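@channel sequence for tomorrow's demo:
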Amino acid sequence: MKKYLFYILFAFLGFACSEEGNEYLNQGSSLNAAFVKATIDAGVKEETGGSIAIEVARGNLLDKEVDAGITLTIGADAPAAANFHLASPIAHFAAGAGTAIVTLNYDFDGLEFYQTYPLTLSFTDTNDNPLYNGYATCKVNVSRLCAFETDLATGDYDVVSEDWAFEGELNLEADPQDPYKIYVNGYPEAEDLTGNGNRIVLNINPEDFSITGTKVVLAGNLSEWGFPSYTNYYFQVVEGSYSPCDGTYNVIFLIGIDQGTWGNNAFTFTRK
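structure tokens (generated this afternoon):
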């Protein structure tokens, strides 16, 4: 009789242990999972909302179909949870798949432009999700960016550079074939120079609104300034940024001539 009681007790204990600590797994062993990235900086331009895909990887149980629970924590500086939520609180691994996608949805209703909202994704059951060559959490910084509008990026501008001691009014014009390619009209004339017809070109990156540009010779010489031997006066974009919320450009130009340069000079273009 004792022998039969022992077998019954063993079977009971074995069943109980196989389920302990496996809220999301039914295989009886822990999943090694981790976020692929520790931080995601997401600048988004959608007017209303959208989603961000966050990758989770696993290091074991590759032949099984398993789920890992995911928790979303909204930072103290972020708004109500109604603006951010997970499409599903689990990362689902299909059998044979090494990675899974967690979808973070966002709704910009009532949120400010150019504000960053900090969020953190973590594993719901840390005991069942030890790390393997990855990250225990993923911090997502969601920033609402204004959408690009050609009308706001062009027109008449006040242009100031304390570095170059310049202050004047210039007109900006978009390329008919590429709205992110902006021409600066009349700069050499604004400095009382005879231009050669070339224009400064500001190329706006549509993803992050950074500005690039090539070297452009604007005048053959500086005769009007009393330096006819100074030839090929040029501007070259070093770096810059454009604000699609108010149309402001901040650009650093390398300014020079054949005989040398005056180094980097910061310019601010403010829409009139």
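heads up for whoever presents: Confidence is low (pLDDT under 50) at residues 1-28.
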